[in-house]
Amino acid sequence: RRNQRRRARPGPPRPGSPRPGSRRSARADQPWPAWRELKRRIRTPLAGGENIAGQDAFADAIAAGALDVIQPDIAKWGGFSHCVAVARAARGAGKTFCPHYLGGGIGLAASAHLLAAVGGDGLLEVDINPNPLREALAGPAGDIRDGQVTLGEAPGLGIAPDLAAFEVYRTA
What we know:
Layout: H1 23-29, H2 32-41, E1 47-48, H3 55-64, E2 69-70, H4 79-92, E3 96-97, H5 105-118, H6 132-138, E4 143-145, E5 148-150
Helix pairs in contact: 3-4, 4-5
């Protein structure tokens, strides 16, 4: 008993503090007036969204008009269901939808399928750096030729993870 860790219990919220995930707290995380001012001063399209979480926060981002390219991360937030809704809202507002993903092969394949499902002129973000977890575990996200990805016909994401490839990373 002596060495047991005590769990910290959060105290009551301070008066006037926003609930986590509420519209008010989401807005505080993104300085949309500053982004709009930056957009006004430059000609380069602005992209963002990989760290935005929540339908309300994405609605705010799209409504703010500062971003030209909306980039939710399918693995960080929402999965297919929520990212499809964000993609439809972005495209409906005349924005480009490009899912953000820099990680393993399974998430990259999911992002490729998401982009194919929603259509549009968005691009698939593919990290060109060596990534053993992406390459050894799941292989490429699809057949990549001349900057185009052709997805397979296999069910699901179309990949069969090589679980034996994980053995070199096992620690216990």
